[in-house]
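Standup notes, structure subgroup. Blocker cleared on the P-hydroxybenzoic acid input:
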Amino acid sequence: MKFRINSVLPAVAAAALIVGAGAASAEDTVKIGLIVPLTGGQASTGKQIDNAIKMYQQQNGATVGGKKVEVIVKDDAAVPDNTKRLAQELIVNDKVNIIAGFGVTPAALAAAPLATQAKIPEVVMAAGTSIITEKSPYIVRTSFTLAQSSTIMGDWAAKNGIKKVAALVSDYAPGADALNFFKQHFTAGGGEIVEESKVPLANPDFAPFLQRIRDLNPDTAFIYFPGTQAGIFAKQFAERGLAKSGIRIIGPGDLTDDDELNNMGDQMLGIVTAHQYSALHDSPMNREFVAAFKKANNFRPNFITLGGYDGMHVIYEALKKTGGATDGDKLIAAMKGTSWESPRGPISIDPDTRDIIQNVYIRKVERVDGELYNVEFATFDAVKDPVKAGSKM
Ligand code: PHB
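Run returned:
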């Protein structure tokens, strides 16, 4: 086995890695280093993924392919410097066989060179910028891409009578993907973008931007920000009178995150989004999944939960195929092409790109049995990430 020592890991740490990699493969335990934000603005992501993984192991056992699966959880607070340090520690000291989690794009990117160097899988369970999977041949994604949902939203909007859109997105990579891909598809279908605004990711203040949209009075506003900012948005959205202005709101489904939606208030009613998961997704498997998750945790699963739950499934299936062997190249080969029924619907790992292929649903916020939900009313089957599928933007 050859290891290349480069500047990513100090030489001493890299030497420890060489020793560690051999030692771990002889043991009876598969170690997964789970790096997620459990504190800070993205803490909901860590909470959902951590609980999803616990539930997966309760349902499927803690042993697979003859090996015990141990999950070591670390909180990076969604700060990429933390992610990198924690990934190094997990690889070098804990000798993990797989790193997983990654609540935001910068965290997933920070870990990519380490996965490549250690030749271990990086299972991305939450981050959504298209480029991520191209940063290491050891990355497999079970979350989603903003391009997947936003291209579909653009096509749907152009075909459903929407003509003039003001766009408002978070000012970082997923926001840029959401805006660019929506715009490309919406304008190709004859729509016009009348305004593009970017809100800082840290401490966002949507109010001035919402006021500007109100003044411009387009027929529709396209809005993206990470789900955990939903509460701030909902409050300012109501305060600026947008809800009663007649301006329609659309976006990728991060905007109406199931984890937050029920607390956001009736001003969210009628918002149409495109996304891969709703807690109300109508299948027997999802009904069972939601009931079990609520029973265990007292809150709803959201789209992030599924990234963690399905991420564990990919890992378990790969270990079954390798008979418990933890060689990174073998695990990645085993993960490619995996296809299964998830609570979100049928999904698979694209064997060419290692990215997720999944249905994208068009949904509308409605009150169902006293709670706010995203009610799905149209389905786009087996959507690939448009970047790697070679579509125009
Ligand atoms: C990301 O940083 O990639 C990200 C985070 C939260 C989302 C979507 C994308 O809801």
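Discussed briefly. The longest helix spans residues 303-322.
Next: hand off to the docking folks.
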